Each structure stands twice: as structure tokens, then as C-alpha cells.
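Need the bound structure for magnesium ion, inputs here:
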Amino acid sequence: MIVTKQRTLSIVKPDATKRNLTGSVVAMLEAGGLSVVAQRRVRLSEAQARAFYAVHKDRPFYEALVAFMTSEPVVVQVLEGEDAVKKNREIMGATDPKEADEGTIRAALGMSLEANSVHGSDSPENAEKEIAFFFAGCELLD
Ligand code: CDP
Ligand code: MG
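Answer from helper R.:
Posting the output first, comments after.
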């Protein structure tokens, strides 16, 4: 069997860092088979949050999302594992914690549709862009 390692970008969002749940999130990611290969705690500027979520700039929730993501520090992470993008989305659960499957991070820790504890890239192409947004190549050597 050929095992192809993949990387994805994860963010522990303000609602989770504020409740001291970074370790709980990491434990669930690791239990699901993903490894944290880079990690940094940062307070996003408004410009950074706007740019990161630019894909949603015309959606009604955009302004509130930018305010939420800059309200407290976040922890940005690069996760690695087999099929990491898809696997992380499975471990995270659906966007709305009320609709997330039992055992997922969002079902266990999420507070609302907005304050849903984690971000995860939605495709390998976006994972590459989002990783490059937060991490330099020299931080990601094997
Ligand atoms: O994070 P995910 O990829 O599951 O969802 P998204 O559709 O890409 O939305 C990005 C983020 O915007 C969500 O994780 C929520 O924090 C927020 N959001 C919101 O506040 N209200 C919505 N109706 C949809 C998303
Ligand atoms: Mg998304």
C-alpha cells in the first residue's frame, strides 16, 4: 500500500483558546491520526483575518467572522497525515456544531455556527495556500 502524506492548515479559533481548549483540540487531532508538524499562537490583525477569509467577503457573516477571529489569540497549525485535508474535516465535523456528528471536535467543543472552535482547509489546493499564508518554508522542513 502506498501511503501518501499530506498537509493541511488548522486553526484553533478564539472560542477554544479562550476556554483553554488548545490541548483538547490537539488531543482529538492526534487521536484521529494527524500529527502537528508546526504550530504558533498569534493574535490575528484585522487585515490578516480579512485576507484569510477573503473567499467569504460577500457573505452576510463576513464582518462578524472577522471580528470574532480577531477577538482573542488563535493557534495556527500545520497537520500532517495520510489524506490529511479530508481526515481533518472528518475530525472537525460539520460547520454548525448542532449538525456535527458525535465525537467530532465541533460537536464536543463548538459553541455556535460562528464560534465552532476550529478551522480546517477544504481542499489540498487551499491547504497549500493557507499553509503558505501562515508559515515560511523553513519552518516546515522534514
Ligand atoms: O469552517 P467551514 O469550512 O466548515 O465553513 P465555511 O463555510 O468555510 O465558513 C467559515 C467560517 O465562517 C465557519 O467556520 C464559521 O466560523 C463562520 N460562519 C458563520 O459565522 N456563519 C455562517 N452562516 C457560515 C459560516
Ligand atoms: Mg471553509
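Comments: Strands lie at 5-12, 35-42, 74-82, 118-120. The longest strand covers residues 74-82.
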